[in-house]
Amino acid sequence: MSEAQVVAATDAELGLELSDKPRGMFVRAWEVFAENKLALAGLSFIAFILLFCFVGPHIYVTNQTNTDLSTYLCTPSGAHLLGCDDVGYDELGRLMVGGQTSLEVGLAAAVVSVLVGTLYGAISGFAGGFVDALMMRVVDAGLSLPSLMIIIILSVIFHPTPTTIIFIIAVFYWFGVARLVRGETLSLRNREYVQAVKVIGGRPMRSVLKHIVPNAIGTIIVQATFAVADSILTLSVLGFLALGVAPPATDWGSMLSSGLQYIQGGNYWWLIYPPGVLIILTCISFNFIGDALRDAFETRLQRR
Amino acid sequence: MVGFLIRRTGQAIFVLILVTAATLGLVHLFPGGPVRALLGDRATPALIDYYNHIYGFDQPFYVQYIKWVNQLLHGNLGFSDKLNVSVVTLISTDLPKTMVLVLLGTLVSLLFGIPLGVYQAVRRNSVADYVLTGVSFLGYSTPTFFLGLVMVDWFAVDSHVFPAFGPQSSSVISILGQPRALVLPVFTYAFLLYALWSRYMRSSVLDNLVQDYVRTARAKGATERRVVWRHVFRNSLVSIVTLLGLSIPTLITGAIIIEVVFNYSGMGLAFYQAAIDNDFEVLLGFTVIATTATIVGNLLADVGYAVLDPRVRY
Questions:
Q1: Nearest C-alpha neighbor of A85 from the set A257, A218, A279
Q2: Backbone angles phi, psi at B86, to 5 degrees
Q3: How much is the average pLDDT of A107-119?
Q4: Could you point out which of A188, A256, B172, B307 has its C-alpha 20 to 30 Å from the C-alpha of B217?
Q5: What are phi and psi of A84, to 5 degrees?
Q6: Is the per-residue pLDDT at B268 higher than 60?
Q7: Cα gap B65→B295, rounded to integer Å
Q8: A144 lies within 8 A of chain B by CB
Q9: Element (H or E) spanning B249, and its range?
Q10: Treating both helix axes as pointing N-terminal to C-terminal, what angle do B248-261 and B87-122 enclose, rounded to 10 degrees?
Q11: Are B257 and B145 in contact (CB under 8 A)?
Q12: Distance from CA of A281 to the nearest CA of B (A)
């Protein structure tokens, strides 16, 4: 056993505050992460897009509730920097409002699925034996459902609002997270410090929440990052299939989809490329960050 | 090995039972029940009761499930009241068309993804590696429908090189007779899958390059070309075979979107249409087929892995 492992184990056994250990871990992970230029670019872009979507509407004020047919499909100009869409909404302002939905749904779906998946996976792996086998067959079943097919059916059944869409996306995403976390748990549950909790009479839930989940946090964070990108993409697909959020709310996918109706009717580039490019750049940023985090946390594992 | 096969198949059957039960349960989530969704808001309660009786929805869930599975096992996947054809007929006309798309797209993506993935691993951290990594990330992050419609804009609307729609035909033979119309759907589909194979191949080759057998091969004086293609490539291919078996959900998802974008009348388009129409028998039938394909694919991937990799023993 390496030195770091011994230190980690004794920390846990002595009941030292967890804040000591993760800080060291996160600082080291950040060092590796910061070396990755693409990831830093991704992080900067996410920061920019958050400002754009949530602060932007207060600076660039537009009416995103009432339609205005006098500005129907107007070309970009001083008054409307990116023109207007087919019901007269200012396109740049619409990108901000739509981005709010896309980001909120993406982040919330990621958080919900990662929380559920982590807890389920950790409990399954920690329980082991028959319980584990049964719980994992449920995950197998979930993973063998073609997710888009079920998501389409669910979107038809439940009239889509941002909240229902979050759960519709999360219902499928947590299975994958659960399987990964369960794998991590299997390797963690036989460590001395987890065994020690059992010996001194700690309840199983304490082992799971205080010892297994914090030690699998690398895997969990990486998975959460990818989950955001995937959820934003899924939401955009629903928008394209006309199963996205209902007007006057919108998201980038719905905007893209309504703009695409004009693809053959003339050069309405501002309806098509801005939302499309924003979806791509946001997802690619989250993917870059996820990739760098994976390297960052794996290096930690290698040093052990 | 036989023990493993039996155990693994048993698991697959158990999973299949769970999934089919969940799918049947799903149609009961329609507000007012599946029959109300099918017949519309103006159907009378008497009519709804009558149809519920015909479909057996007035019986307990487990009875419904057993009867339904019994029908499935006898090859009856249900009947589409909207289209007035049986689901089996629908699948037998649409599945071959979807298979053309899926097989061609997978083939094209493998032809690009595997060699380029190997190249990236061998030339790790070169400019070419970074550029190709960028392309893969673009593949992961681009909504398929957006890519497809941009393709239509560039190659069909602006330059008239390819038709904007997929082949419009009811038979596979005449679809294959319209190669120009197949180009955009197949390549858009292939781009989506390319990222998957090339990233996987790259990391798999990288893993293999540091193995002991590579050092042994080099020590024997094997040329670098021989080391890469005779030793590393063949071992990395094993994991691609597994990945193929596990990728069936991705293939299905991609096919649905591509078919809607290019109006290509395969199972994906029919499924989407059925969802819009609340045609729940079609939804059930198609989901069961897709799920069974996925479970069988996973099973074959596991078994294939055990057969191809002599180190894996169960």
A1: A257
A2: -80, 155
A3: 90
A4: B307
A5: -130, 165
A6: yes
A7: 19
A8: yes
A9: helix B248-261
A10: 110
A11: yes
A12: 8
Helix (H, G, I), strand (E, B) or coil at B79: strand
What lies within 8 Å, CB to CB, of B19 at 6+ separation is A141, A144, A145, B291, B295
The per-residue pLDDT for A24 is 66
Residues of A in contact with B283 (CB under 8 A): 149, 153
ipTM of the complex: 0.83
The verdict on A145 touching B (C-beta cutoff 8 Å) is yes
The H helix count followed by the E strand count for chain B is 15, 2
In one letter, which amino acid is A259?
Answer: G
Q: Is the peptide bond before A160 cis (omega within 30 degrees of 0)?
A: no
**What is the reported pLDDT for A112?**
92
What is the number of residues in chain A? 304
Residue A304 is predicted with a pLDDT of 32
Q: What is the pLDDT of residues A12-29, one digit of tens each?
A: 555 444 555 555 667 777
**Residue written as tokens 């040329």?**
B223
User: Between chain A and chain B, how many beta carbons pairs sit less than 8 Å apart?
Assistant: 126
CB A247 within 8 A of CB A64: no
Give the pLDDT of residue A51. 86
What's the burial of A150, exposed, middle or buried (CB within 10 Å: 0-12/13-18/19+)? buried
CA distance A255 to A234: 14
CB distance B145–A229 less than 8 Å? no
Look up residue A84 and give its DSSP letter.
Answer: B
pLDDT classification of A227: cutoffs 50, 70, 90:
confident
Give me the sign of the Cα torsion angle B289, B73, B97, B241.
positive
DSSP string, A206-223: HIIIIIIHHHTHHHHHHH
pLDDT at B191 over 80: yes
